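We were asked to recover a plausible sequence for a given structure. The inputs and outputs are reproduced exactly as logged, with field labels preserved.

PROBLEM: sequence recovery
POSITIONS: 222
GIVEN STRUCTURE:
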């Protein structure tokens, strides 16, 4: 009985500590993530990660990434049910994860598709949406997302591919980076296939539409 009590206390303490960590990360920038740790263990080269505040990233990269990865970002509370139903009807889960879910996965979890990982991802996503404003969620995502082999965050890949800061990128260049995000190790923003260039064009249309319709109001500076 005492063992059970101690185990419960340890579990409650761990959950409480995790709640505190989530709250702190609303203001404190993470210095590493589970994905970065995993990459450091497998790559011989160094990891490139440069943190850039949301206000300095530039509207073009913000709009392009949201248009590509999670066009309903401002409207949902962590889970885009309409997108989930749509991709399941199409017979694939590709594209169903929201930016909030990707932040939860990239920050804390491992790479697989097990039900345990999905359950933890959902739990962490709820916490992130509860304690972080949308601007913070997007800021963290844009700084920790894998953008190439050994590259994390939009700033590092913008400098690598275009020799520019993110706020200097044209909408076309930003869309080229955004279209690589589903497979950043195999896609190169300066060497895209025609199919990916066509996708990037649709991203630019989506980015413009988001801004015109006011669906980017939760993260764009007014």
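RECOVERED SEQUENCE:
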């Amino acid at each position: 009985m005492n063992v059970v009590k101690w185990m419960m206390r340890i579990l409650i303490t761990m959950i409480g500590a995790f709640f505190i960590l989530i709250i702190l990360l609303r203001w404190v920038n993470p210095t590493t993530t589970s994905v970065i740790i995993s990459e450091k263990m497998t790559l011989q080269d160094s990891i490139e990660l440069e943190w850039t505040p949301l206000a300095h990233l530039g509207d073009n990269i913000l709009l392009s990434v949201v248009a590509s990865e999670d066009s309903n970002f401002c409207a949902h509370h962590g889970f885009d049910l309409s997108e989930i139903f749509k991709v399941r009807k199409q017979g694939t889960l590709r594209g169903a994860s929201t930016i909030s879910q990707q932040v939860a996965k990239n920050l804390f979890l491992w790479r697989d598709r097990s039900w345990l990982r999905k359950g933890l991802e959902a739990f962490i996503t709820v916490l992130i949406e509860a304690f972080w404003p949308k601007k913070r969620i997007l800021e963290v995502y844009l700084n920790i997302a894998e953008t190439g082999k050994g590259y994390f965050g939009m700033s590092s890949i913008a400098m690598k591919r275009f020799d520019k800061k993110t706020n200097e990128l044209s909408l076309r260049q930003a869309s080229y980076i955004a279209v690589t995000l589903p497979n950043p190790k195999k896609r190169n923003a300066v060497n895209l296939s025609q199919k990916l260039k066509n996708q990037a064009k649709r991203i630019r249309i989506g980015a413009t539409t988001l801004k015109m319709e006011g669906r980017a109001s939760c993260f764009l500076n007014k």
